[in-house]
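ok, trying the design again with the full structure, not the truncated one.
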């Protein structure tokens, strides 16, 4: 007898744009992948299950920190800066990192990196006990500059050289060991928020 197929794990998806900012001020991030590791997380997260969702970044709330001319970390203490995984509320420590043509130890040529982190920190809480969700792309030559309003689509087929990766994960706040889920991405799309049709 054939086993029933497991359902896709859909992370909290946004229906439309529940933000004060218009869609033109948002950067949309859409991700799809499969879970590769689970540790003490809720039972609905299982290795091998599909995972998919969307984040939205409000460019108007971004505060850029220029680490080097080709590496910028965008941060905000507004919890609405990166939205889409955790529910509303808490303090804001969201981050988006954009690195174009970075020279890293151990690599024989420059590499690009884009990552987005959606944090949930209880009011006046500690970052040590915070919940955080992230998606990350590290591949050769897929970015053009370090602006926040990027536009690209990557798939697992693009990860074809050493040191390249498309990954993600999230951890839950906990007083004991942090429960976490890790996944690899089959697709990561970043483009203006207005380009994403409401679901």
């Amino acid at each position: 007898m054939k086993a029933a197929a497991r359902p896709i794990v859909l992370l909290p998806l946004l229906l439309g744009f529940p933000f004060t900012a218009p869609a033109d001020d948002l950067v949309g991030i859409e991700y799809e992948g499969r879970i590769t590791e689970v540790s003490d997380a809720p039972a609905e997260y299982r290795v091998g299950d599909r995972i998919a969702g969307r984040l939205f970044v409000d460019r108007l709330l971004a505060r850029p920190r220029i680490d080097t001319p080709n590496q910028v970390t965008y941060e905000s203490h507004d919890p609405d800066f990166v939205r889409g995984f955790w529910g509303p509320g808490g303090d804001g420590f969201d981050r988006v990192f954009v690195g174009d043509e970075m020279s890293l130890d151990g690599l024989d040529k420059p590499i690009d990196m884009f990552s987005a982190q959606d944090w949930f920190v209880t009011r006046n809480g500690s970052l040590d006990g915070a919940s955080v969700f992230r998606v990350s792309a590290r591949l050769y030559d897929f970015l053009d500059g370090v602006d926040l309003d990027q536009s690209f689509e990557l798939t697992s087929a693009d990860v074809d050289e050493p040191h390249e990766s498309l990954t993600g994960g999230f951890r839950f706040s906990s007083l004991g060991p942090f429960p976490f889920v890790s996944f690899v991405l089959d697709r990561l799309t970043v483009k203006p928020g207005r380009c994403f049709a409401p679901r």
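Keeping the full-length input from now on. Confidence is low (pLDDT under 50) at residues 1-19.
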